[in-house]
Recover the amino acids of this structure.
């Protein structure tokens, strides 16, 4: 009985390790993450994103300024 | 647009760009790391459909109760929606080149999306070809309803009736392939919300710019009369 349980356990463990192996066989950028400086790429993308969003805020302000300018002009002409 | 919505959009997008690039994703053959493109490619289409939906609502409102402001909103939502669609198309083509083998596959969803984009391009051609402002607004509002009604089957129905390389085709709605993976949803849904908010933000800017333009034209008209 003990032998059966241990052999069953062994089988399950083997299957588990096999499936784990099968999973890691799929090529992913694991190396990039450990020593490949992926964080540099993330930082660069974030700089671009931050830049574009800042630009969006600046445009927002510019449009507001133009609206105010036009409102002033409207008042002065009328 | 409320400032807190803009901040929310920014926070979500920063989270999406960090999480989308660094968090764990399912290990799948062929797709490999390109599975992360889902976080950036699909939200473009969600953004496009949402913006087109808002646009058609404004078009219907315009037909019910015509006003320049409603027409302005309808055009600009369609305009920014088209930009999202073009970005979705380009990102999809690049992804397809590595996942499916070539940039253009004649995949039903790809073709449908291309036709939908052309239908919306025709909306702007129609607007450009009518001189009278009121006629332009009314005609394009009617056309917008037809364009939206054409887009829905082209993108959501026809690809599901045939076999398609896109996930969720052949009768399965949505992302069945990723259903088991809640990790991806944690990044995907914030990405969708973030990009939709950015789309609305850009649209409000364009609507205001158009408003300024109209006011300047009005001032010039007053001067000449």
């Amino acid at each position: 009985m003990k032998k059966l349980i241990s052999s069953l356990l062994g089988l399950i463990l083997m299957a588990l390790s096999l499936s784990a192996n099968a999973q890691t066989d799929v090529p992913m950028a694991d190396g990039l993450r450990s020593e490949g400086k992926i964080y540099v790429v993330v930082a660069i993308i974030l700089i671009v994103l931050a830049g574009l969003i800042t630009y969006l805020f600046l445009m927002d302000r510019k449009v507001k300024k133009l609206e105010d300018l036009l409102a002033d002009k409207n008042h002065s002409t009328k | 647009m409320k400032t807190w919505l803009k901040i929310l959009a920014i926070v979500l997008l920063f989270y999406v760009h960090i999480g989308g690039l660094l968090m764990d994703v399912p290990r799948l053959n062929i797709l490999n790391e390109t599975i992360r493109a889902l976080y950036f490619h699909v939200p473009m289409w969600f953004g496009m459909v949402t913006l087109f939906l808002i646009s058609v609502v404004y078009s219907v409102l315009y037909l019910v109760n015509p006003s320049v402001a409603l027409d302005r909103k309808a055009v600009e939502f369609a305009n920014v929606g088209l930009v999202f669609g073009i970005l979705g198309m380009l990102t999809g083509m690049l992804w397809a080149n590595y996942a499916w083998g070539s940039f253009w596959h004649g995949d039903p969803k790809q073709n449908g999306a291309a036709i939908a984009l052309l239908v919306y391009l025709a909306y702007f051609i129609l607007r450009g070809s009518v001189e009278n402002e009121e006629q332009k607004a009314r005609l394009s509002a009617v056309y917008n309803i037809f364009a939206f009604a054409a887009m829905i089957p082209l993108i959501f129905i026809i690809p599901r009736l045939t076999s398609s390389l896109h996930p969720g085709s052949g009768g399965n709605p949505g992302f069945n392939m990723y259903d088991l993976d809640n990790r991806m949803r944690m990044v995907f849904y914030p990405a969708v919300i973030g990009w939709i908010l950015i789309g609305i933000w850009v649209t409000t800017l364009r609507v205001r710019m158009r408003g300024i333009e109209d006011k300047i034209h009005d001032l010039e008209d007053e001067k000449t009369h």
Summary: Residues 182-224 of chain B form the longest helix (43 residues). Residues 3-224 of chain B form one domain.
